[in-house]
Structures are given as structure tokens and as C-alpha cells.
């Protein structure tokens, strides 16, 4: 009986390598290094050739000028007297010169003509060098901008992606060099990020539906049972406890979903006045503040910023709610101010309350962290308020700063761009 052949195994998948396969002759690739080398070397060679040509022409002109006769003999006698005429050497135009005086005048004239030729050659060479330098700098600036233009395109795309526009791609054309490899790798990274963020948004949407629906059903059932007047007292007490627990779970789910949504940059922005947002938050917390005996005050000046009104209202609401809930038992107050300071919209919430050590300020912004309390067992919230505030502020390009007040309480300052 023949043995059954083993099934063929699939070949192993090659690991992903961002580098492209090398060309047969990699030294012939028009890479950015080769192009810059050719550019700088060519510019140096052309500038040297031009400078040498100009110096050669100037030297030739100086030599041709120097070949002209310095003097001509006008008359000559049998004695020792010689009469000459010269336009370049006025010193030998005397009526009669001895031989020694004539030689001295000729030597001085030759030295003078040589010095004038050198000075003329130097001045013209410097002017030529200056002109070539200006041309070289201008040409180099233009060529460098052309060679580095792909980097500008990559930078602009990265800046657009920073605004949560992950659909942007560089799609760089041109030779297969280091810049194109960088652009292709960046595009591949953007593709992966877009898929990841799309999956995250889909998960948040599904989780929102899957988590809210059973909690809403539980709340409805509990409210129906609590509405029965013939229900036992023990059952009503249990129903109220379960209803409070269910409400806490709903708040936790809403906070987590809001925290997940607000981690990204805000794409659609509209003018939002922080004064109106803070006033709405104060109105919503006013009844709770009166019940706790907390006075809400402050001056809310117009401070318009660009962002999402719902998320900015959640910032103000969370800060004011925390300021009211974590306050002193008697004679407490909360001060809510808005203003434009140093070209930025500022929302400030101060309150009286327990003394907060400075080293615990950063912990307050972590999810599920409260001051000197456990993760569970507190009826003041779910521990996501300040985390949501920080996340929303960052999504709007701003930041939040918390400082402990003398005597207790905190000063929360949210700064947003105008």
C-alpha cells in the first residue's frame, strides 16, 4: 500500500520590509545624494571655469595694454644728450636727459605701469568674483528648493494629518531615491493608521449601542417595578439601589465613550463663546449647589474660541460639578470666570474645598483616580470627569492647568486658542 504523500506546506510569508528591492546598479540610481553631489560639484566646476576665463581675459587685456611702447626717440645727437617723448612717462619728456636719468625714469615708469596693471586686474577680478558669488547663491537657493521640495510636500501632508485628516497621502512622484522611500513609508503608515482609527470608531459605535441598550432596558424594568404601589418595601429599597447602580453604570459608559471620541483632533470647528458654555453649565449645577449650600459666582466675559460646542460644554460642566461636589460642608463657594488673556480664551473655575497636596495634582487627571478615595464606593462620580476635560482640551489644541489654593480647594484654568 503506497504511503499517502504529505500535504504541501504553504511557503512562509516574507516579512514586511519598507525598503524597496535594490536596482541592479544601485550606484546609477539618481538618489538625492547623487543629485546633490552633482549639483554642488557642477556649480563649483562652472564657477571655477567662469572665474578662470574672466581672469584670463583681464590678464590678456593687461598684457596687450602693456605691449604699447612707453616712449619714442625724438632726436639723438653725437654727444651724451638724448631727447625722447612719452605719453605714459611724463618724467622723460625733458628737453635733454643724461643716460643715468633716462634709465631711472624708464625703470620708475615700468614699475608704475606694472602696479597699475596689477591693481586693475585685482579690482576687476574681485568684481567678477562678487558677481559670480551672487549668481551662485541665487542658483544654489533655487536648485536647493527644487531638490528639497519633496520634503516640503511631506511636511505639509504631515501637518494636515495632524488635524485628523488621515485620508491625505503624499503620493510622491519622481526617481526612486531616499525621499521617495520616505514618502512611500509615510503613506503606508498613514494607511495603517487610517484602518486602525476606522476600526476604533466602528468599535466605539458598536460599543455605544451594545452597552447602552441593556442598561436602558434595566432602567426601564426597574422604574416599572418601582412604580408598583403594592410592591414590598424591601423590594422598593432594592430597586432604588439597583437603579442607582444602573445610573452609575450609564454614566461610566457615557464617560468612556466620550473619552474615546475626544482623544482625536476636532475637524469641524465653529465659534463657541466660553461665557455661554460656562453659563449653561452653572445653570445645570445650580440646583445641586443650592442643596449643598455652595454659592456660585464669577464674572463671565465673552471669550470666543473655535471648536465643538457640545464637548466644550462638557468641559465646563465637569469642572463646575467637581467644584460643587468636592467642596466644604458650610459656606463654600465656586467662582467661574471666562476672559480673553494674551490672545487666548481662558475658563477658570476656583472653589473652596479640602486641601489638595501639589504632588497629587497630576493623579487627578488619570481615569478612575480620586483624591484619597478608592476606585469604587464614591457616589460623587465615576472618576472620569477631569480625564475627559484634559482630553477635550487637548483635542481643541489647548491645555488645562490645576493649582491648589491656600486654605483648600483648587484653581482649574483651561486655555484654548482663539
UniProtKB/TrEMBL annotation:
<dbReference type="InterPro" id="IPR036097">
    <property type="entry name" value="HisK_dim/P_sf"/>
</dbReference>
<dbReference type="GO" id="GO:0005886">
    <property type="term" value="C:plasma membrane"/>
</dbReference>
<keyword id="KW-0808">Transferase</keyword>
<keyword id="KW-1133">Transmembrane helix</keyword>
<protein>
    <recommendedName>
        <fullName>histidine kinase</fullName>
        <ecNumber>2.7.13.3</ecNumber>
    </recommendedName>
</protein>
<dbReference type="Pfam" id="PF00512">
    <property type="entry name" value="HisKA"/>
</dbReference>
<keyword id="KW-0812">Transmembrane</keyword>
<dbReference type="Pfam" id="PF00672">
    <property type="entry name" value="HAMP"/>
</dbReference>
<keyword id="KW-0597">Phosphoprotein</keyword>
<dbReference type="InterPro" id="IPR003660">
    <property type="entry name" value="HAMP_dom"/>
</dbReference>
<dbReference type="InterPro" id="IPR036890">
    <property type="entry name" value="HATPase_C_sf"/>
</dbReference>
<keyword id="KW-0418">Kinase</keyword>
<dbReference type="InterPro" id="IPR050428">
    <property type="entry name" value="TCS_sensor_his_kinase"/>
</dbReference>
<keyword id="KW-0472">Membrane</keyword>
<feature type="domain" description="Histidine kinase">
    <location>
        <begin position="206"/>
        <end position="418"/>
    </location>
</feature>
<feature type="region of interest" description="Disordered">
    <location>
        <begin position="1"/>
        <end position="22"/>
    </location>
</feature>
<dbReference type="InterPro" id="IPR004358">
    <property type="entry name" value="Sig_transdc_His_kin-like_C"/>
</dbReference>
<feature type="transmembrane region" description="Helical">
    <location>
        <begin position="126"/>
        <end position="144"/>
    </location>
</feature>
<dbReference type="InterPro" id="IPR005467">
    <property type="entry name" value="His_kinase_dom"/>
</dbReference>
<dbReference type="Pfam" id="PF02518">
    <property type="entry name" value="HATPase_c"/>
</dbReference>
<feature type="domain" description="HAMP">
    <location>
        <begin position="145"/>
        <end position="198"/>
    </location>
</feature>
<dbReference type="InterPro" id="IPR003594">
    <property type="entry name" value="HATPase_dom"/>
</dbReference>
<feature type="transmembrane region" description="Helical">
    <location>
        <begin position="38"/>
        <end position="59"/>
    </location>
</feature>
<dbReference type="GO" id="GO:0000155">
    <property type="term" value="F:phosphorelay sensor kinase activity"/>
</dbReference>
<dbReference type="InterPro" id="IPR003661">
    <property type="entry name" value="HisK_dim/P_dom"/>
</dbReference>
<keyword id="KW-0902">Two-component regulatory system</keyword>
